[in-house]
Fold this protein.
Amino acid sequence: MKTGIVVFPGTWSDRDCGHAVGDVLGQPARYIDHREERLDDLDLVILPGGFSYGDYLRCGAIARFAPVMEAVTDFANRGGLVLGICNGFQILQEARLLPGALLKNASCEFRCEWVNLRVEQSESAFTLDCRPGQVLRIPISHGEGNFFADPQTLDAIERNGQVVFRYCAPDGRVTAESNPNGSLGNIAGIANARGNVVGMMPHPERACEQLLGGSDGLAVFRSAIHALARVAV
Amino acid sequence: MTYRAEVFVTLKPVVNDPAGLTIKGGLHALGFDSVTDVRAGKYLVVTLDADDEGEARSRVDAMTQQLLANAVIEDYRIELRA
């Protein structure tokens, strides 16, 4: 799985993603400068977390117009696998590759903690290895992850099965207490209609080794490897 | 001709505004009990060159739609002065 990890000014989780994909999973990975315009050699593009362009104006609003984003959009439209994590999720929404927006956390606090995620959709490219209803333990680290969409859009996302992850209790129950940021429907991650583009607020790259507290995040990257193998067959 | 555009970006009424709610709570804590609602937004001042007011307005409108405001969650209003 040839993986490209996009680095904008202010991106901070690029090396964590590179470590997870390259060192832990042993897949070829390279960093992509925000000015690059060609992604033809890649199977997977990751937009990592961070504070691209200082989060000025709105999270992801400036990054969305970086030269590389035109190539990311073409790549996604051709069916290439794209994973946006945290700030990367915000950028994908600003670029209209995913629906909705991420508002300031309802608590107005930056939340940095482990959460439980219920897998709602096991057909997306990043959850193929999961069972529907499976609970993954993965950390979050954000101030603006409060998922919002207007009622019609939210209804369409739910009906199309585009909700990939919901914040839940350890036993999988979706409760108000397990929602760390006020997201509508406890939504933590969504896919586009085609299922090749996924955005999620939690950080799977930070949950790939027991040494770091857990390895549930590996399922996200392993699913992508299997999604690519399935296409190749 | 140089124009000065003031762009007011606000969350749509249907969008929750945690910052506004927190500010309202602060005002109540100070004893301003009459405050029933606070909405927080962004205020941008854009200075630009254009041939006339019509051109200036259409350019500020275009840049606001493209970048300064996110139509998914925000409304905007532009005030223009020469």
Chain B has a mean pLDDT of 96. The CA atoms of residues 32 and 46 of chain B lie 34 Å apart.
